[in-house]
Write a structure and sequence with these properties.
The structure holds 2 protein chains of 2 kinds.
Chain A: E1 2-8, E2 11-17, E3 26-30, H1 37-45, E4 52-57, E5 60-62, H2 66-72, E6 73-76, H3 88-96, H4 105-111, H5 127-138, E7 145-149, H6 157-172, E8 176-181, H7 184-190, E9 193-198, E10 201-206, H8 208-215, E11 219-227, H9 232-236, E12 241-247, E13 250-255, H10 258-271, E14 275-283, H11 286-294
Parallel strand pairs in A: 3-8, 3-9, 6-7, 7-8
Antiparallel strand pairs in A: 1-2, 1-4, 4-5, 9-10, 11-13, 11-14, 12-13
Helix pairs in contact in A: 3-4, 3-5, 5-6, 8-11
Chain B: H1 4-17, H2 20-40, E1 49-54, H3 60-68, E2 72-77, H4 79-87, E3 93-96, E4 105-108, H5 113-125, E5 134-135, H6 145-175, H7 178-183, H8 189-219, H9 227-248, H10 255-272, H11 284-290, H12 294-308, H13 316-336
Parallel strand pairs in B: 1-2, 1-3, 4-5
Antiparallel strand pairs in B: 3-4
Helix pairs in contact in B: 2-10, 6-8, 6-9, 6-10, 6-12, 8-9, 9-12, 9-13, 12-13
The chains are: A alpha/beta, B alpha/beta.
Chain lengths: ~300, ~350
């Protein structure tokens, strides 16, 4: 994608986005609600025409080559409801019929661990089973590129892990996977590369480690203030602190020298007559990266 | 204002006010229905009742007496045309002259009050004539109200099955994002809509067999014309209403908005297209418009086949209207159709 813009009214939902996805990798698009993730995916799929810019998918131009691209990609959209009165097998037979090539229904059911639910109506499937069926539909044409829009939203932890296993299997099979997610643990586990989008622009990209080290530091020092005041500016100016932010009554300091920063912060609290509650050192996460970059919590859209 | 009852009442009123469909059904539709039925059944003092006399009657006296009666609107027609006017509800009674001095034969439908009234007025107009009338109630198949109404019911069924079946399913698929999901597969988009059309043709033909089978078994309702012509017209009706269903469902993802549109389109045609009573009651200017409605064309064509034995070549106007609706609604519907 080059210079991709999508304008609705007087607002650019996607605002000059450049993005490359290397074949055979899993790339995660991260961003808060309204960041432009879903609109970007729609333009890749040919569902939405860009206001400006170009989209090239597998060497073909969208939307000009929409049908040819559709034959080579598989999609599981956010919140899609498959026909409830079809069985899992019938649903896959429908999707399989749209493609010239691809695995048969039994093989698709096996790929997503739904063999025993072949004859079950979609409406009787659990949330996790429906998502796995949606993934199987995405695989019906043996796609080179799989696009998953928030694949595990609304699932319980066990169902999420089962779906993650299937997505990891896709990547091991050499497929390119492009997914959006709200979950940092999901992105960390599944994605080779992460692209953070906010207000329609790419604000950071890289591997999880690269993003964490570049934007936060290796660890986060957490300081809960029970009484008194601990000035955020003073904490931010401590030697070794790379980023500082406050969530409620808890200060979070990003650093590569956690023990030193903690000692200096304790001393500052003593000087400020602030009483500290919980104090902790934790590895920095993608969520810290995101909160630093976007300046707001995920999902606050 | 903080009393729960007041807040609950306000909630009901706010939801009602913010629901366009509810507003339409509460205020808009009764007004439209009142207007349409008001035109059809407008009060005309001493409204003359249409009756038809077979024009080769030869007896000018009877004809002159009937013509002179201000409460009768006398139509002259050949035997076949007179029968056609009667069975299509355009004439309420039929007068046939008998050889010699025999009393004129008055044919009416005793099951229809208006037909009985027309017969009574004819009898009164001929008081003092050399011979009284001979009653010959129409009871044979093809001349009764049930024969008139069955093609109307078939047309109504085609309309409701196609408008609701296609409209509802498309809008539900759009609101559940299934259309969007299908649109990112290589599926030919035309196949999706064609599958709906073909499924509804099958469904309509099955229900047609059930309705006609029941009408035949229970009331002896048959068709004077060809069954093939009947089926062809039903299929053309199916095309027209399927295209209309696609048009109504082309943009919205709200099933309530769709039901408002489908109800408005179908109920207005139900009262204005002659399903249950002849459209002859509408003024001529309104008839010109009503003839362009697909349900009017469908029901008229089915009645022409079933009651008069007409063939497809004699139904060019009705077939043109149905094909025109298929093309117009289909093209506009496909042009406007939203997959996302």
């Amino acid at each position: 994608m080059r210079g991709l813009v999508k304008r609705y009214g007087d607002r650019n939902v996607v605002d000059g986005l450049d993005l490359d996805v290397e074949a055979g990798t899993t790339v995660g698009l991260l961003g808060p609600n309204g960041a432009g993730k879903t609109t970007t995916l729609e333009m890749i799929q040919g569902l939405t025409t860009p206001t400006a810019g170009t989209v090239e998918v597998l060497g073909l131009a969208q939307p000009r080559d929409r049908e040819a691209i559709a034959r080579r990609i598989g999609v599981a959209l956010q919140d899609t409801s498959l026909p409830e009165k079809l069985t899992a097998h019938e649903t896959l037979a429908l999707f399989r019929s749209f493609y010239d090539r691809g695995p048969d229904e039994a093989s698709l059911l096996s790929d997503v661990d739904l063999e025993r639910q072949a004859g079950t109506l979609v409406r009787a499937l659990s949330g996790g089973e429906r998502q796995r069926l949606a993934l199987a539909c995405a695989l019906a044409g043996d796609p080179e590129l799989v696009i998953l829009d928030e694949p595990t939203t609304g699932l319980d932890p066990e169902a999420r892990h089962r779906l993650w296993d299937r997505i990891e299997a896709l990547a091991r099979g050499g497929r390119t996977v492009l997914l959006t997610t709200h979950f940092m643990d999901e992105a960390t586990r599944l994605c080779d590369h992460i692209v953070v989008i906010d207000r329609g622009k790419v604000i950071a990209r890289g591997t999880t480690d690269e993003l964490v080290r570049t934007h936060v530091g290796s660890h986060v020092v957490e300081l809960e203030v029970l009484s008194g005041t601990l000035a955020a500016e003073a904490l931010a100016s401590l030697t070794g602190v790379r980023i500082s932010r406050i969530v409620g009554r808890t200060h979070r300091l990003g650093t590569d020298h956690a023990d030193d920063v903690l000692a200096r912060a304790r001393a500052l609290a003593g000087e400020s007559e602030a009483t500290l509650g919980r104090v902790a050192i934790a590895p920095a996460t993608l969520e810290d990266v995101f909160l630093v970059l976007a300046g707001r919590g995920l999902g606050d859209g | 204002m903080r009393h729960p009852l007041i807040q609950l009442l306000l909630v009901r009123l706010r939801i009602f006010q913010r629901e366009p469909e509810a507003l339409f059904w509460t205020f808009g539709f009764p007004l439209v229905l009142t207007l349409v039925l008001g035109i059809a059944f407008r009060p005309i003092e001493d409204e003359p009742l249409p009756v038809v006399i077979v024009e080769d009657a030869g007896d000018d006296t009877t004809s002159a007496r009937l013509e002179a009666d201000p409460q009768l609107e006398l139509l002259h027609a050949s035997h076949d045309e007179a029968r056609r006017l009667f069975v299509r509800g355009r004439a309420l009674a039929l007068v046939e002259m008998q050889p010699g001095d025999a009393a004129p034969r008055v044919r009416s439908d005793p099951t229809r009050p208006e037909s009985r009234l027309a017969r009574a007025r004819i009898e009164r107009a001929l008081v003092g004539a050399p011979s009284a009338i001979e009653d010959a109630p129409m009871r044979e198949p093809g001349t009764r109200y049930v024969d008139f109404v069955v093609p109307g019911l078939v047309g109504m069924n085609v309309m409701t099955v196609c408008l609701w079946g296609i409209g509802w399913n498309v809008v539900e698929a759009r609101s559940r994002k299934l259309l969007r999901r299908l649109a990112v597969t290589p599926m030919k988009r035309g196949h999706y809509l064609l599958a709906f059309l073909l499924a509804h043709v099958v469904l309509v033909l099955v229900t047609l067999a059930v309705i006609l089978g029941f009408a035949w078994a229970s009331f002896g309702v048959g068709s004077a014309g060809s069954a093939l012509a009947y089926v062809v017209v039903v299929i053309l009706g199916c095309f027209a209403f399927s295209a209309m269903g696609v048009l109504l469902a082309s943009r919205t993802d709200n099933v309530e908005v769709l039901s408002g549109m489908v109800n408005a389109a179908s109920l207005l045609q139900l009262v204005a297209s002659g399903v249950f009573f002849s459209t002859a009651r509408f003024p001529e200017w309104a008839l010109t418009i009503l003839r362009l409605l697909p349900l009017t064309a469908l029901v008229d064509a089915l009645r022409a086949i079933a009651l008069e034995g007409r063939g497809l070549l004699e139904l060019s106007v009705e077939i043109t209207v149905l094909v025109g609706w298929t093309a117009l609604a289909g093209l506009v519907g496909l042009r406007l159709f939203r997959w996302t």
